[in-house]
Amino acid sequence: MTTVSKDTVEIAVRPTGAALGADVVGLDFSQPLSPETLQSIKQAWSEHLVLRFRGMGKLSPEMLIEFSRHFGDLDMRPIATGNRSQFLEVDRPELTIISNVIIDGKPIGGLGSYEADWHADMTYVERPPKGSCLHAVELPPSGGDTYFSNMYMAYETLDDAVKKEIASLTCVHDASRNSAGELRRGFEEIDDPRRTIGPSHPLIRVHPESGRKCLLLGRRRNAYINGYTLEDSERLLNMLWSHATQAKFTWAQEWQLGDMIMWDNRCTMHRRDSFDPSARRIMFRTQISGEPVVAA
Ligand code: SIN
Questions:
Q1: Structural domains in the chain?
Q2: pTM for this structure?
Q3: Residues framing ligand 1 (Cβ under 6 A)
Q4: pLDDT tens-digit profile of 63-112?
Q5: What is the atom index within ligand 1 of the atom nearest the CA of 283?
Q6: CA spacing 20 to 30 A to 275: which of 111, 115, 208, 268?
Q7: Residue 270 Cα: closest atom of ligand 1
Q8: Over the chain, what is the mean pLDDT?
Q9: Which residues lie below 8 Å from residue 26, measured CB to CB, with a gap of 6+?
């Protein structure tokens, strides 16, 4: 355990012991963050990639938004969807709800109760988000755990020959579907990745703050390596994906009520287990705006 700051409250950082993740203990979300404490959290985030704040009780949308703003501008949720106003006393455009709860026939949030495959958020835009904060407001009795993978380690442990092969390669990221896997208006179903429409990103990106190299895979579906035959693209992507999602590079967030986690979307991927659709799961989420992707 490392004590990282002493000001109004003592903050401690306890690494999970897995490939990534740490608990931050002692923060009081109802109090303003001192510059020293903020710096300590930023340092811990940079070292551990995913931070967990446990035992928070219920954070209001305002508290989550105010905290998240310390790490950058916030993205607005895409379009007003579902039945949020039935659930929130005060709606805020910076807040997304992830939930399977339906009120009057309309979902209050996104993603339902099904499994979410490994992905980094919104790599199908030119500037994928920097990171996200996710807070557990209601949880099912079991299921719905969220897993993270360390993409620095995934890159660093590749064979030298593979590092060399992918050094100047770019991959097309499918923009036709949203984070919930739903086809966006105006896009057609694609069954040949060579026809994928979306931005191209380097397979290796340089993290803008740490300066370290990490793998950038995004989503597997409809991904395509520019300039490769379909067969070679599929072979290489299958290999990179099975390498990057090995258990030794991952950590599982087993949710407890009130947990708030924040992940760095530039050097991690995540996935989520399904859960019983008849149980309720409600999460508040904010998303921190990203910067252009820089190739290695
Ligand atoms: C996601 O952002 O993929 C969802 C994470 C979760 O619901 O735990």
A1: 2-114+129-141+256-288 (3.60.130.10)
A2: 0.93
A3: 98, 111, 116, 146, 270, 272, 283
A4: 999 999 999 999 997 665 567 777 777 778 899 999 999 998 889 998 89
A5: 7
A6: 268
A7: 3
A8: 92
A9: 9, 10, 11, 12
